[in-house]
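A further point concerns the way the authors explain their paired sequence and structure data. The central task, working out the C-alpha cells from the amino acid sequence alone, is never made concrete. I therefore recommend that a typical entry be quoted early in the introduction. An entry of this sort, consisting of the sequence and the corresponding C-alpha cells, reads as follows:
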Amino acid sequence: MVGARRQTHFAPKEGVDLTNLAESGWAIIFAHDADHAIREAVSSLLEHRRKQATQKSNYYRENTAVPANGHGKTKNNSGNNCPFLAGLSLI
C-alpha cells in the first residue's frame, strides 16, 4: 500500500510481568520547559519508582524532551534496553 504507515508494537516482551516494575520498567518524560517545581512535587514518587524498577536491572529512566525545532516537535534518541520501553525512544 503506497503511503501506508507501518504499525509498531510497543507491548513488552512475552513473559514480562507488567505489575512488577523490576521486570517491566518505568519512565517519565518531562517537557523541556517544565518548571523545576513539578519535578520536586513528584520527587517521592520518582524515588519510589526508581527503587522498584532497579531491583534486578536499571529499568528506570527519567528524561527531558528536547525541542528539535520551533514547531513544538521533540527530538528523541534511542538506546535503552528496558523491556517495557523497547521500541520507544527516550532521551
